[in-house]
Specification:
The protein is an alpha/beta fold. The chain contains 5 helices and 15 strands. Strands 2-1-15 form a 3-stranded mixed beta sheet, covered by helices on one side. A 3-stranded mixed beta sheet has the order 3-4-5, sandwiched between helices. A 3-stranded mixed beta sheet has the order 6-7-8, with helices on one face. The chain binds citrulline.
């Protein structure tokens, strides 16, 4: 089903202290990040989504990465239990909005789970078992959301969606490392060149795909597969190890 809503939250005052291993982390600009975020929200609204703005959270540096706070499927939401201590507490604002719209359940210890690991593809979910999400997290998600979840095990990564996203029309974009994984069987896979791997984190709304600016080859591949591409400057998001999907929950 095509998404109709997007939950978002603008970067808070502590944004520049985000968790990040990006070499340019020290140069991140909050002002520019807010501008890029505003443009992202405007684009989602132009694509017809109702944009639901969660009040800003100035206590948690990574609070704009709302994707990680909840997984929505089948009209229900699992509120995630964040793996990183500094991110625990972010979920409350997102949970308060989701609760107005659908039944919610909080993932419980020993689960850790973050929405950035969860690829939604035609009524099935594919989840990373990563640095952030464990098997117990996936089990709780599968049970509460009543959905089949395939897994890709790679504890060396933060989130699966930095490497694999669903474009639509049975087509995935996946980096070389995951392209032949059995969890992706049955999908056509576009593999971006190594220098464009960051562009594998895409956000689809119908036949339109939001992609990071600066990765021409990956964008051409997606266009040639029959999608409209909107190129977005997310430099200040990338410096905090985030990407396009991380900034919203679509449902
Ligand atoms: C973090 O390390 O948690 C944030 N700095 C970045 C989270 C990115 N979220 C995502 O890929 N879904």
């Amino acid at each position: 089903m095509e998404p109709r809503h997007a939950i978002v939250r603008e970067p808070g005052n502590l944004y520049t202290s985000c968790l990040s291993e990006h070499p340019l982390h020290h140069t991140v600009s909050l002002k520019k990040a807010r501008e890029q975020h505003a443009k992202y929200c405007e684009t989602l609204a132009e694509l017809g989504l109702e944009v639901i703005r969660v009040p800003r959270d100035d206590q948690h540096p990574d609070s704009c990465f709302v994707e990680d706070n909840a997984v929505v499927e089948n009209g229900k939401a699992l509120i995630c239990r964040m793996a990183k201590e500094s991110r625990r507490g972010e979920q409350a604002g997102v949970a308060a909005e989701l609760e107005k719209l659908m039944p919610i359940k909080w993932a419980e210890e020993p689960a850790t789970i973050e929405g950035g690991d969860v690829v939604h593809a035609k009524g099935k979910l594919i989840s990373g078992i990563s640095d952030r999400t464990n098997y117990e997290g996936v089990a709780q998600m599968q049970e509460w959301l009543n959905v089949h979840v395939s897994t890709i095990f790679d504890p060396t990564i933060m989130h699966l969606k930095s490497y694999v996203t669903y474009l639509g029309k049975d087509i995935m974009i996946a980096t070389d490392k995951y392209a032949n994984h059995p969890a992706l069987e049955g999908f056509n896979i576009l593999i971006p060149p190594a220098e464009d791997e960051y562009a594998a984190d895409t956000l689809s709304v119908g036949d339109t795909v939001l992609m990071a600016k600066g990765y021409e080859t990956a964008q051409i591949m997606v266009k040639e597969a029959g999608f409209n591409v909107i190129s977005m400057d997310v430099s200040e998001i990338q410096k905090c190890d985030g990407a396009l999907t991380c900034l919203s929950i679509l449902f």
